[in-house]
What we know:
By secondary structure, the protein is an all-alpha fold. Helix content is about 80%, strand content about 0%. It is built from five helices and no strands.
Amino acid sequence: MTISMVKGLRSPQVIQLDLMRTYNASKWQTFWQLRLPSAMPYLFASLKVAIAISLVGAIIGELPTGAQAGLGARLLAGSYYGQTIQIWSALFTAAFVAAMMVMIVGWCERRVLARMGVGA
C-alpha cells in the first residue's frame, strides 16, 4: 500500500504542479488540493488487493496454532478427515467474505471520489 500511495502522490502532471506554483499555493495546499485527490484511486486499488492478501494471511495464520474455530481450522479439519464438503464450504465462505469486503471498499471508493470530485 505504501508503494501505491507514493506512486499516487507523485501522479499529478507537471503542468498541474506548475499551476499550483503559479497560484502561489503552499506545500500543504498542493498536498490537500492536488496530490491527495490524485492518490485516492491508487489507495483504493491497493486496499482491494490488501483485503485478499489479509484474508489469505488470516487463514494461513490459523493453521499452525491449533485453532478450533475459523476458516483455516475448518480447512485443516476437513483435510484431516477427508470431508470435502467442509473444505469447499470454507473456501466458498472465504470467497464470499472477500467479495463482500471488496464491494464495501468499492462503495466507499465511489463515495469518497465523488465527494472529492475525482472521476473514478
